[in-house]
């Protein structure tokens, strides 16, 4: 007779390990540390319609991307030579 622990006889293809793995599972602190390394993306655009398009594309992904839209050059430009000029 076959062993009762044969997973193929019980509808599964999973074969459990008979010995523990050599690599330890990461602790909660290590998993949290790995998740904390999220890249920051800065996106600059000349028009609001381009920003709207990028935001629409981000929303199509499975990720929930935290984002903030800043204002125009008139509000945030630090270059004195172009600060007050029109586009």
Briefly summarize what is shown:
With 87 residues, the chain is mostly helical.
Topology at a glance:
Blueprint: H1 28-35, H2 48-60, H3 73-76
Protein name: Regulator of telomere elongation helicase 1-like protein
GO molecular function: ATP binding; DNA binding; DNA helicase activity
Region (Disordered): 1-34
Structural summary, described in words:
This is Regulator of telomere elongation helicase 1-like protein. With 87 residues, this protein is mainly α. Helix content is 29%, strand content 0%. The chain has a domain at 38-87. It is elongated. The termini are far apart.
Q: What sequence of helices (H) and strands (E) makes up the elements?
A: HHH
Tell me how many strands there are.
0
Q: pLDDT under 50 segments (min length 5)?
A: none
Oligomer: single chain
State which percent range the strand residues make up. Answer: under 5%
- N- and C-termini, Cα separation: 83 Å
Backbone shape: elongated
Radius of gyration: 27 Å
Share of helical residues = 25-40%
InterPro entries: DinG/Rad3-like (IPR045028), P-loop_NTPase (IPR027417), RAD3-like_helicase_DEAD (IPR010614)
Organism: Noccaea caerulescens
Keywords: ATP-binding, Helicase, Hydrolase, Nucleotide-binding
Protein name: Regulator of telomere elongation helicase 1-like protein
């Amino acid at each position: 007779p076959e062993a009762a622990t044969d997973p193929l006889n019980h509808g599964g293809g999973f074969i459990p390990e008979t010995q523990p793995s050599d690599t330890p599972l990461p602790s909660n602190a290590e998993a949290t540390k790995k998740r904390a390394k999220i890249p920051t993306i800065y996106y600059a655009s000349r028009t609001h319609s381009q920003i709207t398009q990028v935001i629409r594309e981000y929303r199509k992904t499975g990720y929930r991307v935290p984002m903030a839209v800043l204002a125009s050059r008139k509000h945030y430009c630090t270059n004195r030579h172009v600060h007050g000029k029109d586009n």
